Amino acid sequence: MATVQQEVDERTNLTSSNKFELLLFRLGEAAHSAQRELFGINVFKVREIMVMPTITAVAGSTKHMLGMTNIRGQVIPVIDLAGAVGCLPKNGLNILMVTEYARSTQAFAVEEVDQIVRLDWSQVLSAESNTAGGMITSIARLDGDVDNTRLAQVLDVEQILRNVMPPTAPDVDPNVLGPTIKLRPGAVVLAADDSALARTLVEQALVAIGVPFVMCKTGKEAWDRLQAMTEAAVAEGKSVEDKVALVLTDLEMPEMDGFTLTRKIKQDGRFKSIPVIIHSSLSGSANEVHVKSVGADAYVGKFVPEELAATIRRVLQH
After folding, report:
1. By Cβ atoms counted within 10 A, which residue in 28, 236, 257, 314 is the most buried?
2. What is the mean pLDDT of each run of 10 residues along the chain (318 residues)?
3. What is the distance between the alpha carbons of residues 87 and 68, in angstroms, rounded to a whole number?
4. How far apart are CA 310 and CA 282, in angstroms?
């Protein structure tokens, strides 16, 4: 429990000011430029980093799946992250990053680990409109908003895992999600997630339970949209609850993270009656405890549509 509390305190200190820590690493030379670019992943997803252990190749594995390795009694799949994003590691895959992500444990083989940097989410910009292929969600400006700042690509791990380990069953089965949910006429769920794949999955689940929604790509976009919807409600002589039934937000997002978005909503008297559900791939007791500390009404891990539907239904009934 002491360890969990330490993690909560650490995360609270960061997220109270819209900050996070990014582990920087290199995957080798980019195919189009031969440059050794920097990539990043949230430190809180990384369980440990180690020198590359023995990997056992598995017959019939998908492309970029190196095999399995045994780490202290746990057999973990190992993914060639360099290959998955199209880089060529001239110095070999020397380091293994073991991650806990979306209720699963997996390891990524990388060329080298660079450093850990502490950033404000305002230093991170959405990359979706500027990139193709869906491999990255955002670009981190490591030195701030200055000319020639170093840039790091924040990977869309959800999409990479989907590419390397595709599911064997449909993502959303409407038959197991329960009855449709009726919102008051004109109201919607305001949702935010920076991953294109995650947005698609959430949209499928919301459509399956009959819930209208407005989808945003960042916490800041969701906050701005909430302000606009509030102004529209006032102009129509309505309350904001007539426009927004619930906010569903991811945690890791460019410009403004889900913790900050939740805290801003809960600290604003206009929105005190609007429930907030955090829907995140960041797992573990520390994250769930901190979700409560910022005032969220519920936490649900990605991505089990039955649990998401049940959580929405429960929160709206309160």
Report:
1. 257
2. 49 65 93 87 88 94 94 95 93 93 88 92 80 76 92 90 87 90 94 92 95 95 96 94 96 89 93 92 63 83 90 89
3. 21
4. 20
